[in-house]
Specification:
Blueprint: E1 8-11, E2 25-34, E3 39-46, E4 52-55, E5 61-67, E6 73-75, E7 78-86, E8 89-99, E9 107-110, H1 119-125, E10 131-137
Antiparallel strand pairs: 1-2, 1-5, 2-3, 3-4, 5-6, 7-8, 7-10, 8-9
Length: about 150
């Protein structure tokens, strides 16, 4: 049986406990933080510390269960660079990793490039598929997809 790894990342809002800077990426388990009287936001239980660190909810991304060709984990919100080599010409394209929502409950790429099947299914399974690598993310490298 194949085990699915569930993990998230988010950018630290403000942490006084473990000396993190605002904007540092935190990787771990996602949970909702609340107090007795109101919702505080989201936290990530880091793999490194036994405490939860508050993160900006707009930056939360789930690991999609796939690594790029260099072994880097791919997260929702990443910008993926795909490329094909044709003789001596290399063609690069940039795509954002997004969750399809209720109508299409799977991770896919925008803009997509494969109409007959899910983009990730194509990239992982097809022998003639372009290579993919994480080039950045929409929070720090938005210019790559604009």
């Amino acid at each position: 049986m194949m085990e699915r790894t569930t993990k998230f990342r988010g950018r630290c809002i403000n942490d006084k406990v473990v000396s993190l800077n605002e904007g540092d990426w935190i990787y771990g388990y996602l949970h909702r933080k609340d107090s007795r009287y109101h919702d505080i936001g989201y936290g990530i239980q880091s793999y490194l510390w036994s405490i939860s660190i508050e993160v900006d909810p707009k930056t939360i991304g789930e690991y999609i269960g796939i690594k790029d060709h260099t072994g880097t984990d791919i997260y929702e919100g990443d910008i993926i660079r795909t490329y094909d080599e044709y003789d001596t010409v290399i063609i690069y394209q940039y795509h954002q990793v997004v969750w399809g929502g209720d109508q299409y409950p799977a991770f896919h790429l925008e803009p997509g490039f494969q109409d007959t099947m899910n983009d990730f299914s194509y990239l992982v399974c097809a022998s003639e598929a372009p290579r993919l690598e994480v080039a950045g993310n929409v929070f720090e490298n938005k210019d790559l997809i604009e």
